[in-house]
Amino acid sequence: MRRFLIFISCLFLSPIISSAIVTPKKNKTIYILSESSVRIKFGAERLSKALSSNGFEISVNKKSSLAKDKNGIYIGIVNDSFFKDLPDSIKVKAATVVKEGFVIFNNKESIFIIGADASGALYGCMDLADKINSNGKLPLNLSVADQPEMVLRGTCIGLQKPDYLPGHDVYEYPYTPESFPWLYDKAQWIRYLDMMVSNRYNSLYLWNGHPFSSLIKLKDYPYALEVSEETFKKNEEIFKFLTTEADKRGIWVIQMFYNIIIPKPFADKHGLKTQDRNRPIMPLIADYTRKSIASFVEKYPNVGLMVALGEAMEGVGQDDIDWFTKTIIPGVKDGLKAAGIKEEPPIVLRAHDTDAPSVMKAALPLYKNLYTENKFNGEALTTYAPRGAWAELNRKLAAIGTINISNVHILANLEPFRYGSADFIQKSVQAMNKIYGAKGLHLYPQSGYWDWPYTADKVAGRELQIDRDWIWYKEWGRYAWNSKRNRTDEINYWGKEIANQYGSDLAGGKAILNAYEESGEISPKLLRRYGITDGNRQTLTLGMLMTQLINPFRYNLFTLMYESEAPEGEMIIEYAEKEWKKQGHIGETPVQIAKEVVEHGKKAVASINEATASVTKDKDEFKRLKNDMYCYDAMANFYAEKVKAALWILRYKYSNKVSDLEQALPFLQKSVNFYADLVKLTNDNYLYANSMQTKQRKIPMRGVDKTFIHWKEMLPVFTTELDHFKHSIDSLKSVNGSIAAKVIPYQTAEVKILSADAKVYKLEKNASIFTDTIAIVKEIAEQIVGLKALGFSKTEQIKNGTEIRFTTPKAVKLMIGFFNEKNPKYLAPPQLEIDASANDYGQSEIKISNGIVINGFPPANVHTYSFAAGTHTLKLAKGACLVLGFIDDKQELRIFNAGLDGRGKDIDWLFE
Q: Which residues contact 804 (CB under 8 A, 6 or more apart)?
């Protein structure tokens, strides 16, 4: 590829006048070649502006060789003939920088900016511009050589919304002005892209379930277009604008899509669902998808693709490999052939809910320009010391030999409060390099991903994320470029940056940085030690129920978070058991974290108060930042007090002493008081806590139709929980210390079974479960005895999955038993971390833990699927499971642990 030097138009500014004294401008000439890269042009423009605003008058000249002008600034690429007359020592130094690297040096009064490539020259221009703007003058002695640590440094924007569009499912958002007015705002795009290049980001990820039906038209499937002709033309225009402007700034646009999602018009025409995780690969859908990708690549050959094989199609398995190698890659190749392009555009394989190493092994012989991407701490930020299976997977991806990208995803435990811990972020990027072997960063917004471009702040006209969270983008970008910066220097650097932001002195800037860093430890520590999941089904800042703390397995505890995304340590239930048994503790403990987060909150508040008097600029935003520090403090105290109460309550599980429950009561009362403080702090300052306001939200409460999205909605829940606990204590004392929850058997709902392969039987001890084995019921919860269960072939369940067809005259719940053991032969329970449809029927939460035991099998947890009156077909994925029968949808379900695993009694009833 030819590499050229360029020049830019000169910029003339009026003389700077101050107090009637005119300061004469100094002259500088930027030398360039007539043919150019748009990236170098953009860099030279930035440099010219910096010089002009700091007292220089800029002129330009075209040169094919070095001029003898001592006032010249020469911008180019290392192997251009323009620099052939430079001293060998300089040429050797310039030749050492790698992709996107640069050198800057001066020879007498001339300045040379030499990039390893066009992006390197761009970054060299920006580096010098930053130095000029920071110091207010042109440095006298320049000897700089720099290059990025991360090969890919990208940010993400989701074309998603907080709730579903009418008639659509999760991730299904066509590109329209009605849904995404900001998408068509060119001025806003320029601001965002300028932010990116200023922070040295070189990739922009656009996330959407199925973007093709908004961006291309297919001759064979014209009805698949999901937008109007007018909108389609707008989409073409804005996509061309975006990719062109991004390229000027050295930014590669990457369009992400999920598999397998089809557009609604296509689905309706063929009588299909837009999404069906358990649907096998269909030739019709494969053909449509392949042609969509081919058309997209032909139309936008310089746009990369990110492929999510999991979530919308069945996870790990041969289907993933086949879809990638027989549909997606052939589609890309078809598009290249049609466009007459030989160079392969990059494809990023998202290692989510798929066996990425196996997929890559099959794909690399077919296509070479592949990348992998994997989450850093799941859908949260929990630790800069990941370990265990998750770290091993990332190392395995890095060892493939292609670039592995670390994805800082969703940040469900941080939203909506501000986050800017430079220390935590720097250590996280270091971990990506050292522990994961990753060479790329894929960064989500700090909060409000589903509500881009707005924050959750209750501000007139809404506040933009790019404004509020400037420090989030700046910190990750700085350390993705170089994570090995000296910590003392970084405190001074960020202190100055923050001081400039708020018009304070350096001491004030450092105090604000300290507030960011103290508060920045709170949410990561809370989630990794007390949480249910690293996924966005939990909104940490809204709090947790007591049952979620004392019985986390009931809520489908995602154990990988504790095993890999946290330092070695103990859960609350483990700590309580060891305390009772007088056993030693290991690693980070719940009690330790309770103390630490309270101290972090206290220090954050003290530091932000210390800085207040020095703030002279952007006072309204500082006030909101200050309020966030108080929110972090109240949240830390809420959790700390509730955990103290939980440990006394768990002690009662072993001691049966009501006095232990009485010990817990004042701590639980304090936690509610601190939560009330949190409500006051957020009531007039935030619109919501979580930007995803759909049924995927589960912890602390199920978020349906935008309910339980604000702290004021949760305070009555926690108050009721406290009152119920007080009543339970009184009841226990009145019956001499023991009380049991009343057993209410579930009543069978009469439905008509349409599945010919299903055997109806009465659910009871010694009942035969499967049609092809001798397995029988060994133990069973009293509540489900007598239901009309359905028996299927275990062999067929493992091979092909389970299909249940039925007709019901009224709304019902279907009870399904999932064996409580990870085994490919058992149907995996609903898991929102990997399957966005895992709560479409209200099935994600365990209703009866350890509710039935089959001889030769582990205990099974019971979930329920809700159906309205009518005819239905429920398709379950491959793996053995128990179909335990139907009950009336209106019958009250008391969630509990039947305890048939032999691990202890259920005490959730204390709060329900």
A: 755, 758, 790, 814, 873, 874, 876, 883
